[in-house]
Amino acid sequence: METGEEFGPWLARQLKLAGKTQAELADELNLTRAAVSAWITGRSTPRPTVMMDIAKALGTDVGTVHTRTTDTQAGLPVTWYHRPGYHDGGRDLGNAAAFAFDADVQVLARETCQNSLDERLTENGRPVRVRYTLHELTGEALDAFREAILWNDLFPHYSAVSEAAGNQKVGRVVDAGVRDMYEKGRLVLLRVDDYNASGLIGDDYADGKFAAVVRRQLESLKSGPGAGGSYGLGKATLWATSALGLVLINSTLSVPHEGRTERRVIGRLELPWREVDGEPYAGPAWFGRPDPDSPGAMVARSWWADEETVARLHLNRESDEPGTSFLIVGAHDVASLEGKSDADDESVGDEEGDEDTRDIRKMHGRLVEALGRDFWAAMTGGGSRLPLLEVSVRALQNGKEVVPEKQVDPSAEQPSRTRALRAHYEGTTVDRLTESGQVAARSVPLKLPLSGGAHGTLGTHQAVLLVTEAEGDRDADGGKNQVHSLRGNRMTVKRAGVQRLPIGTNPFQAVLLVGEAAGETAPFAKEAEEFLRAAEPPEHDRWGQTEELTLRWSPSAYRRINALTAEVNNAVRELVARPKRSSREGGEAVRKALTVRTRPKAKAPAGPVVPVLDKLDATVGDDGEWRITAEVSIPRGDEIVPMVPVAQLDVRSGGRPKLDWAELVAVEGCEVEDGTLRFPPGTRRAKFQGATDVTSHPVRTTLTRLVVELRAGKGE
Amino acid sequence: MKIYPYKRLNRPITLRVTSVSLKLSDGTRDQLETTAYSTQQQAVALGIAGHTDWVSATIGLSATLPPGANAPDAAWSDLCVLAVLTDGETNVRTSAELTRDAPDGRDWSGSVELLRDDHMGRASLAVYAVGTVDGVRGRSIAETDRSWLVDTASDEPVRGLQLDVQTASFKRSSREWLQAYADAPWIVDVSARVPTVFVNTDVEGVMGLLDSNGSGVESKVRDLLIAQMATDVWTAVFHGAIGDLEVEPGAGPVFPTDWQGEVLREMLPDVVPGVHVEEALRQVHRRRTGDSGWVELQTRIHYAAVRRADATKALAYVIRSLEQMNRESET
């Protein structure tokens, strides 16, 4: 049997939800107020018979009172609360934080996965598991879902936004999202679940993770100094990815709140300022149970939902492991259109779905790609280390799987880099590369500045540089000869190519581990981590000058990072490129001039054009002769050189024995005259057939290789 | 176009060199760094470590067969994969059998041993998949389409053949034959293993000019000098290559397999444009050994050499910088 929360707090909340006082309940039960008070403070529990009366008084069944896994439905129903317009008449026409991002599932993957990594429960040493589910709803499933989120209550708000859509961006996006749902009769849900993470703990309003995500903007409450995020912007990508601006949340907490952990549910809607039925609304809205403590019992707070409700909201979690599920309603992926190359110009208009920003299969592919690219390191374990992260992606249509769940495998997405990191964990790196497949390790210094603008160096952190041969099978991530840089959260921050490599350098991939990624024992790992975190912009795609870096260290502190980059590039070059030899005799320029290398051919002089053999089919005939059918292509020209077809046998060395023709027949576009093919002027294609003379064969035909050539002139 | 009288795989085998080590005369081994080979250029340079006393080299290989090699309904049986090292100059052919990495896999690996005494300069390394087809053993089912080059002397893994450049005082050189050319600034020797250009250091300042890295007129003059030198060299190597052809009775000239072949393949399209290189070789050979046409061909040979030497570009740059210098001195 499920263990519910303590009776006391549960009863207190039920009374609050029902708007009853302790005295009123005591009257209904014909008991003293002190008895009720004793239950609530936990000094005693009611007898089973009294339980029945309590159930009746709260309008619920005895089971609920016994198990106490959900709230009674006696109180105010779950509903939408829209923040009223500001009294000063101010209008927010959108959430500024959301503007920092485009609707791009790859950015969403980066931000959400990073958050999950940051919130990983570290005590048990297990990885945090993240699952992305794309779910397309149509028909009845769509209707049922709309009912569950009280769409009819929301619709006037969307209409109001659509009406004003002409003037501002958010409105247009929302308008397009609503129209897509009605016109195509579908809705794409993108769900991000994490397991073995802390979940949205803390009070509904006071400081805590719950409030940071659900109630506040630009607040980052990270669990440790090694965390990836620092701006509190990441959560905005959730709303930015939703064309409807709507995200529902179900969290299983790692630390009980109100004595409970499972199915803490709330929804949040981001819309611009709007007026509905003459009432102005500021923008955001929350989906939850009205809080009786709030003024007028209007504000919606999270509620402890029952299993049926979360199922209807598509929020059911697969186990009671702590973590959070975010459901992005109306997910779209505008950035997927950018990747389209000019090459498929022809296919434009062939297929209506081509330009679709809501294609779940395409989104699936882009998610896998982005996760492999940014989080391969976190997904890699080795030696005694477990990976920090496991990610899988799947796509459903009305509950039926269309793309089966696929765990993102770093050694498939990033084989070379994964091999490098694994070798580092397992301690199998080498100093110099002597065999392909090896991983060379070097330490590279990062000189950390003193904070507060003081001159001088705090200490030298030794970063770890890993270099290995590129495995060449995937070039989607910007190609070979790249350095990926990571810090403690094992997310790829910087991708940069190495310049000035000599021609013919074997393709490689390099990984730079800095800060806590370099290992706990590395000197000044913590300081380096802090320094680089401050040097990371909200996009998490480079290290360089940032305001925080200037404020905490000095305006020139970013140069330390440039120096690190230079050191890294030198170390890479030293490992993969031959040392520049002292100039050979005669100097570089002479050597270059005296190298045999292919040059563009000189233009053929005008005159008769020369036909070339284009296609050849050959079989061995019954008498052991070679029978051929050959096609000839002829360049455009007035005069065509007559050609002699020559049959030879291929040999390994020496001259090729020539075979005689027993028969040579023109099929089309040419005529045969005395063993020579003649082409009428203007012919572009010709075809002829032939059979060799068996008596001219030096060996058995089945042991020969036939070579057919066209020669100009006499064919000698 | 080539046709085989039995079923084969259409696509080529891909070959990668995975390691190179040298066995020295004292019995020790030197494992070379991966910079000794280039997977892009498909070349191995055994001279990279600067050893003069190595005896043999072991080249580690990995080959991937095209899809279909292991198909259950394939026309062949007894599949085996061989690495073959051939040297066109010494006519040495060494083969080594590779072993399959995993049962039913398409990756095979192994190593081939190269004895230094068997080779002059450049050997080529190819892989063949061989099996029994229609009851005939040892038939090649697929090969690599582009061989790797193993250069026993070079210290740089590049494909392009580099002609050797040497400097010497022609008057005082230990190579006595150079003394006859004491008044020439440079001389080309085509009889060496690789054509060699000797630059005469008795001409004062010539080395300084050739080695200069500066900009301005000096470097333009250097480029012009190099263009002149290169024209001479290319003309000489072409004649050297064409004059020494092996002729198969009744079948015409055979394409050389060493540097001469490389030079001819590169230059013939400019000498006899618009035809296949084999055909061009036959034409040139006919003109050289026949009664007429050799003299007329000289212009084309000269043209091919000038193009290779980039003479036009060098000349244009010199003229431009001279004009510029004149303008500056006028103002």
From TrEMBL, chain B:
Highest taxon of source: Bacteria
Protein name: Uncharacterized protein
Organism this protein belongs to: Streptomyces muensis
